[in-house]
């Protein structure tokens, strides 16, 4: 699903952060086919072409999508039950974004604080983590935890606050958000974070227009190590920046 941008000059840069907040679908995994299949099934139930639903559903909470299309189903009981079935019932499982697993394992090995901030429900997130056997974050912020979904910054702001709650006065306070969608990029910036975007679902221009600080193809172009001489800081190198 990576959108290639031939002929675009790429460079590298290095920055220090206290931790990382990841979006999930489109950033760590690609569940496009499963999501399309799910909305096709829901569309048949509510009498709306799933292609119409898909025009506005990416990166948004299902409850917000259904508030517009069928308010009677816009409740957490229905949404959680619906999304809990996606990882096991859909014919096409999700795939990992290139380099995602290796990056998450590297963060765990370095004891780097990291969290997932997703527009999906807890049931959906746990389902995919179990099916794909991915590393688990120290913290999660899911659809049920916020009043308003992305591009509202509430989810990233809450996660950033929790990530920094044990930091000392002299510790680094910069937090990195990793996103794939313009709505998420905007949310990360509004939450006071730097944003690294991957071109898995949107173009470089779309991500830059949303405010991304750096744009790379995928996680294979990220390196991380402990910051020497500074406790609680980690040095990230982004390669092949567009």
UniProtKB/TrEMBL annotation:
Positions the record marks as coiled coil are none
* One Gene Ontology molecular-function label: sugar-phosphatase activity
Sequence intervals crossing the membrane: none
- The source's superkingdom equals Eukaryota
Q: Which InterPro entries match?
A: HAD-like_sf (IPR036412), HAD-like_SPP (IPR051806), HAD-SF_hydro_IA (IPR006439), HAD_2 (IPR041492), HAD_sf (IPR023214), PGP-like_dom2 (IPR023198)
Q: What is this protein called?
A: Putative 2-deoxyglucose-6-phosphate phosphatase
Q: Which organism is it from?
A: Aspergillus pseudonomiae
């Amino acid at each position: 699903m990576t959108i290639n941008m031939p002929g675009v000059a790429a460079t590298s840069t290095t920055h220090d952060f206290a931790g990382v907040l990841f979006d999930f679908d489109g950033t760590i995994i690609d569940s496009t086919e499963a999501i399309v299949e799910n909305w096709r099934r829901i569309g048949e139930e509510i009498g709306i072409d799933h292609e119409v639903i898909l025009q506005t559903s990416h990166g948004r909470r299902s409850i917000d999508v259904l508030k517009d299309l069928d308010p009677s189903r816009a409740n957490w009981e229905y949404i959680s039950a619906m999304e809990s079935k996606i990882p096991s019932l859909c014919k096409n499982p999700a795939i990992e974004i290139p380099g995602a697993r290796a990056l998450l394992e590297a963060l765990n090995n370095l004891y780097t604080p990291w969290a997932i901030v997703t527009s999906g429900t807890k049931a959906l997130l746990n389902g995919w983590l179990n099916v794909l056997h991915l590393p688990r974050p120290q913290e999660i912020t899911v659809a049920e935890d916020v009043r308003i979904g992305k591009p509202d910054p509430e989810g990233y702001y809450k996660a950033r606050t929790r990530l920094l709650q044990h930091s000392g006065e002299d510790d680094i306070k910069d937090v990195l958000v990793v996103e794939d969608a313009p709505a998420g990029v905007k949310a990360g910036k509004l939450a006071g974070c730097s944003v690294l975007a991957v071109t898995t679902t949107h173009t470089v221009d779309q991500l830059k227009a949303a405010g991304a600080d750096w744009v790379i193809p995928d996680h294979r172009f990220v390196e991380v190590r402990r910051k020497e001489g500074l406790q609680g800081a980690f040095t990230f190198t982004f390669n092949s920046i567009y």
